[in-house]
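Dear colleagues,

As part of the handover before I leave the project, I'm documenting each prediction I ran so the next person doesn't have to rerun anything. This entry is a single chain, and its sequence is reproduced below.
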Amino acid sequence: LLAANMLMLLLISIGCANAFYSPSDGVVELTPTNFDRLVTQDDAVWVIEFFAPWCGHCQSLVPEYKKLAKALKGVIKVGSVDADAHKELGGQFGVRGFPTIKIFGANKRSPSDYNGQRTANAIAEAALAEAKKKVLAAFGGGSGSGGSSSGSGSKGDVIELTEDNFDKLVLNSDDIWLVEFFAPWCGHCKNLEPEWAKAAKELKGKVKLGALDATAHQGKAAEYNVRGYPTIKFFAAGSKRASDAQEYDGGRTASDIISWASDKHVANVPPPELLEITNELSFDNACEGKPLCVVAVLPHILDCNAKCRNKFLDTLRSLGDKFKQKQWGWAWAEGGQQLALEESLEVGGFGYPAMAVVNFKKMKFSVLKGSFSADGINEFLRDISYGRGQTAPVRGAKKPTIVSVDAWDGKDGQLPTEEDIDLSDFNMDDDVKDEL
């Protein structure tokens, strides 16, 4: 009996050690056994984290998630799923990484993905927005003032297309387009309407979303071989022909549409230019008006030859391309050339290469403390993009003074040549003695 009791206590202690949340935290533990009853069949809006106990980012989220549960208590329900132990439940909702946060609103079978900052405040704002959408729908307002399949004209951010304006707006523009061909009586089109409107709002300035009533404009629908509703076609950037239209093969939720279209947008965005800081103009071109500016300070050319420097520059360009959707600025300087810049961002003193990411609007910066390598910089920038990492105020709370220097010529450094000294004019008589 004693052995059985000890075994029970051991199992309980192991379970507690693996659990992120206790009942007092307000985070409901969800499993395949209780998920449908508590979430799917419930009218409440839920925020649910799919995690794995071994996941470091999941562990880092714990304090913020506890704070979220306490803040939303009585307003929105907060739950968690150990998707490592319950893989089938994670797979049901397309969970591929940890932590994954989903918001279950009006349509419990199709939750929206949360991809914002992993703070209690940011997650709460997204959850409350979903709750507001649910309330508006109950009053008959849907998720916004626009609709792609209403056929009543251009509303919200969805652009009404017709046979008269289609070629001008879509084919003869440089913009990326997603076009829905719908029928006003189509039930699937009506279900897509709020999702299409929400996606159009989120994608504004990146991808244009249009809608064409295929029953009113049958000629245009036939041109694009529309045989069912809704049919969605993708048109890439630049001038195009009808034959260039591609089939949309993504999901029908706003988050699916946004994710699919954003990938197309990013693929079309050119990588940022990596500028050498040689004067104030080059510095402004690299950083002014950008949400963040990535500044690298590389070793002196005598300490790191052309091959060495180009290797660093190639790494920076590759990462610039990877993070190009962020629209950050990218710049570099040779160590010791822009001392005011180094001092203001507290880099260089511990050696080169070094890096800092600066927000000149807020006059704050964060310094790379890890390895100056593709992996090390990637992890640093990824944390920055999620709002994590230590920041400090820019020294002097103003843009540093940039001095004018020569641009690198792409060659190895050369040591300065020593001047030959002509000794012919010197009297080398050994008899001459120095006088004290």
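The two ends are 103 Å apart (CA to CA). Residues 1-18, 141-155 have pLDDT under 50 and may be disordered.

All the best with the project,
I.
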